[in-house]
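Entry 14. Ran structure prediction on the chain below.
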Amino acid sequence: MDTRVTLSGWTLENPVVAASGAFGFGKEYQEYYDINCLGSFSFKGTTLEARVGNPLPRIAECASGMLNAVGLQNPGVEHFIRHELPAMRKLGPAVIANLGGGTIEEYVEGARLLNDADIDMLELNISCPNVREGGANFGLKPAIATQVVSAVRKVFAGPLLVKLSPNAENIVEMAKACRRAGADGISLINTLLGMAIDIEKRQPVFRNIVAGLSGPAVRPVALRMVYDVVRAVDCPVVGLGGIATWQDAVEFLLAGASAIQVGTAVFQNPQAPLEIIDGIRTYMERHGFEHVSEIRLR
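Output, structure tokens:
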């Protein structure tokens, strides 16, 4: 059975990718298993300048998932290139850099630095606050998303994935706009907006008020969006959002995703990506599939 997939020009040994934000810089999970077993991983979201993130609390559990308001705490792009990337390169899998930003200029400068670094692919996270648009997200309106993707495309020569927010006005039009602006692939979904209230303190749990909802609760929404986007764009689509088991992953592959990402599930079960890889292979064997692409709905 052949589980290899081609993602924006790069061949991965299997379609299972560890999602940004959940897998750190890879070394955090080395003690659990050989990272080479993964198709790839998208490292912790990074911005041009270092960020301290949001004040505590940052995480709250909820039914079938979790809320997080970490605030993209990270050491900055230059620190990543100098101190994290060399060790990541030794792990084996393709390195997917995840880049966020607050302005188009920040995105462009971060992408320019990463273009000269030894990474295999750039995942552009356009769900960060756009301070010049009154706090709106780049990922909400196609016209604004087009500006940042086009600008990054001019300075980044490698494969470019664009990670979409489920809070977009129209997810299909957003995907089309990003593709026209130069994206080589689309990944979705990022977290949904949610909140939690402390009933004893009678105030929101998070200083930010809102937080990102992830986990099994969002999976049906993510699956529907992936299904719609796959049929609207002529590029690879990476599906994520609540994938915790091999059955979840197969659903996304059936919907047309070229690869899938596993995020929140690894907090509860670090072995989840490996179990998903094994489950996909067993599913292929049971159905007589010789290549993972045969799973897709006809």
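The chain has one domain: 5-54+71-191+215-295. Will compare against last week's run tomorrow.
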